Queue: 2 jobs
Job 1
Amino acid sequence: AQKITQTQPGMFVQEKEAVTLDCTYDTSDPSYGLFWYKQPSSGEMIFLIYQGSYDQQNATEGRYSLNFQKARKSANLVISASQLGDSAMYFCAMRVDNAGNMLTFGGGTRLMVKP
Amino acid sequence: NAGVTQTPKFQVLKTGQSMTLQCAQDMNHEYMSWYRQDPGMGLRLIHYSVGAGITDQGEVPNGYNVSRSTTEDFPLRLLSAAPSQTSVYFCASSFDGFGYTFGSGTRLTVV
């Protein structure tokens, strides 16, 4: 079975600083994908970034980058130059290719950006 | 292009009542799924479908039924609502499993 662990229930970051949100995963399948989603207080799920298990380089999308360490089974999200609008819940999720292509989510990290 | 549409957005049910949460997508996605999100937690998979006529159980299927008679629609049925089913329900669809589009959610309260 697949499992995603996010060990930081809540974090504070000063505006304009960088922050790393931790995510570790567990799967025995060699082919999988890792996702990060943002959920603001309005409740919608916003896709941020994706990393495939065979991708050679770490994914980047604007201010978001994914620090993918395959041997450690970690996929940490790095947000550079935090903005007040980054305050939200952040979820790490995994898709395993031999498990119906559905997502398994971690418990989330609440990020609060201080002005 | 509406994406994934969930109705209703809010619902209050009495214990024992049944209802259907609707989910429709207009992107011709084969993969569709239902998740529930309890307060302060991540999403958990209830049921999913990899194409019309094919459904399977996820992590928390008890008390829910699904069917997939068309590519576009994937309704979730609560058979006999219980307070433990109070949650926010999300429907999601995907073309290939590499990108998922989520609906805006249905907030369900069972009293």
Note: DSSP finds no helices and twelve strands in chain A.
Job 2
Amino acid sequence: EPEVTQTPSHQVTQMGQEVILRCVPISNHLYFYWYRQILGQKVEFLVSFYNNEISEKSEIFDDQFSVERPDGSNFTLKIRSTKLEDSAMYFCASSSDTSNQPQHFGDGTRLSIL
Amino acid sequence: QKEVEQNSGPLSVPEGAIASLNCTYSDRGSQSFFWYRQYSGKSPELIMFIYSNGDKEDGRFTAQLNKASQYVSLLIRDSQPSDSATYLCAAAWMRGRRALTFGSGTRLQVQP
């Protein structure tokens, strides 16, 4: 069964450094998402991407964050200058074009900011 | 009022029993609802989704939606210890947004 893949599984970074999280969505899906989950808290939406542009973003997704689809398969989340509070699990998800279709999640990247 | 509200639990049921998980949502415009299972330290795994009023069954799982009451539930029949996890309720199209809005999850413990 097709799945969303994310790399790396764990990223440790010094505060203030840039980090790029990578995702390969399911191949025939057209909507891509990033969510995060701080330890012990609920899953929170960051941003969605469709047709090579951001379609929705949350209040969390400020100027420190950016997303890109650099080629036909990868979808990346960049955090420009990481803060301690960026430590979380980051999940990529994808869904097909139909409005009520479910989103399928990758295994996540655990980001630890020191 | 929380957008998607769940009882945090833990909900403890004996093996073989029916587990009933509930969720309420605040926005009547929400169109579709999803139940994900999340094991500790893992990613959300889709269990069921529903967007029409009534029941939807898939194996041991039944999702129920009542849009008038803004209420979604998940029933797990013949609960197994491997069902022990946190169950996340999520709504799409809340406040016109396709992205999912998650509840905090209900922790289910199935006692052998």
Note: Chain A has a mean pLDDT of 94.
